[in-house]
Amino acid sequence: MVDESIPTSDGDYQPAKYVITFSYIAQGKTYVGKYKAGSPAEDGHTFEIQYDPSRPERNTGSDEQRLWVRVSVWVAAGALVFLIVWLSNR
């Protein structure tokens, strides 16, 4: 289950209501990303992102990348637990 809530300034959480789409140019090619937000962003709004020069489609602004990292961590943790249990039963 993915938590799609957004923290507010007073510490409460509200559901993400908007999908913000952005684009950036890296190595002469245009890439598109998106993220969920609790409030809209105006057209032309700018913000900084970082991207992997060897894989420019990977960036720090997209939710999809963050989900991929979370899933990878959970899979690795599950594999580690399985390995520890398996080795302790040998």
Plain-language structure description:
The longest helix is centred in the C-terminal third of the chain and has 26 residues, at 63-88. The mean pLDDT is 78. This protein is α+β, with helices and mostly antiparallel strands. The protein has a two-stranded antiparallel sheet. A two-stranded antiparallel ribbon has the order 3-4. A two-stranded antiparallel ribbon has the order 5-6. The protein has one helix spanning 63-88, and strands spanning 5-7, 13-15, 18-26, 29-37, 51-52, 55-59. It has one domain. 29% of the residues lie in helices and 34% in strands. It is built from 1 helix and 6 strands, in the order ββββββα. The protein is flat.
Task: Spell out the blueprint of helices and strands.
Blueprint: E1 5-7, E2 13-15, E3 18-26, E4 29-37, E5 51-52, E6 55-59, H1 63-88
Antiparallel strand pairs: 1-2, 3-4, 5-6
Keywords:
about 90 residues, alpha+beta, two-stranded antiparallel sheet, 1 helix
